[in-house]
């Protein structure tokens, strides 16, 4: 071998899902727990990720305007189902900007979202999945 006897192998690995999948029952338990605990934003996040194929990094593109139009461009065009659109717009007081913000008006970051959903999963009794 020309490289001094060291053979180099290139291995291809299948990309596995980075997050565990929930069963329908677990998904419904998350939604029910969020409603019972009056965690509206967390309820909407679970509903959003459960009904749309939206990557977490594209959450900033979920704006009031995009929801009103019925389409989110993240990175491809995703339709906002009418039931989700009604839920997202029900509590909106402002006329624009991101739907998911912290109490200080800043866009929610990945860590904030993970903490909220993991806390909800523990409250719903499915903490081992998240």
The radius of gyration is: 19 Å
Largest β sheet strand count, sense and barrel closure = 2 strands, antiparallel
Number of helical runs? Answer: 5
Mean pLDDT: 82
Sequence stretches where pLDDT stays below 50 over 5 or more residues: 6-17
Strand order of the largest sheet: 1-2
Alpha-beta classification: mainly alpha
- What percentage of amino acids are in beta strands? 5-15%
Give the strand tally. 2
N-end to C-end Cα span:
47 Å
Tell me the series of helices and strands, N- to C-terminal.
Answer: HHHEEHH
How would the global form be characterised?
globular
Please characterize this protein's 3D structure:
This protein is 42% helix and 6% strand. With 130 residues, it is mainly alpha-helical. It has a two-stranded antiparallel ribbon with strand order 1-2. Helix 1 crosses helix 5. The protein is globular and about 35 Å long.
Q: How do the helices and strands line up, and which of them pair or pack?
A:
Blueprint lengths: L23 H13 L3 H12 L12 H6 L1 E4 L1 E4 L2 H9 L19 H15 L6
Summarize the structure.
The chain has 130 residues and is mainly alpha-helical.
Question: Which tags fit this structure?
Answer:
single chain, two-stranded antiparallel sheet, 42% helix, globular
